[in-house]
Amino acid sequence: MRKRTVLLVSDDEELGRSVTEGLSPRDFLVETVGSGDRLKIITRQATASYLVLDAASTALNLPVFLLQVRTLLADRPVLVLRPSAQVAELAESLGYGAGILDENMLAPEVLAGALDRAHPPEGIADLSPQSEAADAEEAADEATEGDSETPESGAASETRPADEGGTDPDQSAKAASALLIRRRPVIALAGLKGGCGKSTIAMHLITSLLYEGLEVASLDLDHAQRSLSRYIKNREIMRLGQDREVKMPYVIETYPEQRRTERLEDVINRAAKASDCVVIDCPGAHSPDVGTALACADIVITPINDSFIDLDVLATLDPKTGQMIESGAFSKMILQARSDRRQRYGRDLDWIVIRNRLGQLDSRNGRAMAERLAELAQNLAFREASGLSERVIYRELFLQGLTLVDLCASGSDVQLSMSHVAARQELRGLLGDITPRLLQAA
Ligand SMILES: Nc1ncnc2c1ncn2[C@@H]1O[C@H](COP(=O)(O)OP(=O)(O)OP(=O)(O)O)[C@@H](O)[C@H]1O
Ligand SMILES: [Mg+2]
Known about the structure:
The longest helix has 24 residues. This protein has 16 helices and 14 strands. The chain is α/β, with parallel strands linked by helices. It has a 7-stranded parallel β-sheet, with helices on both faces. A 5-stranded parallel β-sheet has the order 2-1-3-4-5, with helices on both faces. A two-stranded antiparallel sheet has the order 11-12. It is 43% helix and 14% strand. The site of magnesium ion (MG) has 6 residues, from helix 8.
């Protein structure tokens, strides 16, 4: 019989030894990895048949890690050992309830039983949506072998973890579940004009929030271009060769709506419960996905280039007087999102418009834009944030996956030029207009 591989993530050496000794005779091959060995965890989790996470002894941020596993390795069986009430509740909501084992359930026979009930898919390395048909065939084969027990049927599904720290267990459980129910801010970069800086600003916002110490989840809805995904991928590659820490967002992979098995709204809301904030980069066109992202967003950021053509998607202006005649196409989408959002969550959204790629010289066009935008802000209920100038530094770091925020961070060995310093000032101004409310909410 082929040995099934178990990746145990734990910093508890004694537990690692007892699990290895207990499971080896039962045809499991156990590999224990400490939580500090992130690279090993990332590389091994893709090929192990099972993931076993020792919540009581790991420095990983388990809510974020579990969510990552759930989205990236959707059908991988996961056991969560000794979780806190908060982690247990999240594991349950992600469908791992049957694999929750408390302190008293670590005997090898109990562990082996739980692993046996959770069937790992064969051909683990290929979990792309294209392989769904193959997985379905394998599931059918397994069913004909007569093992019909569902993962939920194990005794483990009844268990609840012991509470930590000697406080009233009821109180702690309530506090933990309140924390989970509370939804963290969702920010969508959206607008109908292509090339106005949505992905660029999304990446700068993400890195800035990471440096604020937040756990940031990122979601790229532009399935055709995938600019934000590419940017983050470049950062991941660059990070491998670095001695110093490079902060990374947690990337939520979504497929286009017709290939997705889960509703986008659920994906966003789950991410908003498990991280400190979610940043969504939208394509520059209308789609049902964009409608959902807008309705889920607490903050919508719309960059516009300093041009009346860009302004036209916000409002139709009278050519003679420059006064607003009616809402433009994107403003109508926001109106719809505001109404959806009030119905779903009982709250309005914060719409922020940013002027991007501003010329550095004062111009008549620039002044006229500023005036019109100030009027539209009143009529369409958005707020203006400080704009960004046209600068090479906002585009030249893409291949390294870096942003101006990284260059300016303490510990960076980059010598800042005058132009970097000026850019840092304006970026701080912009982030200062966006993030205080975010940080308050996070
Ligand atoms: N402030 C800026 N200064 C200089 N270049 C910029 C600035 N903002 C964005 N860019 C550049 O403008 C181009 C478009 O930016 P970006 O891809 O972020 O726009 P987008 O709104 O996401 O586009 P799309 O709608 O196609 O997704 C890119 O080449 C980017 O590097
Ligand atoms: Mg883009």
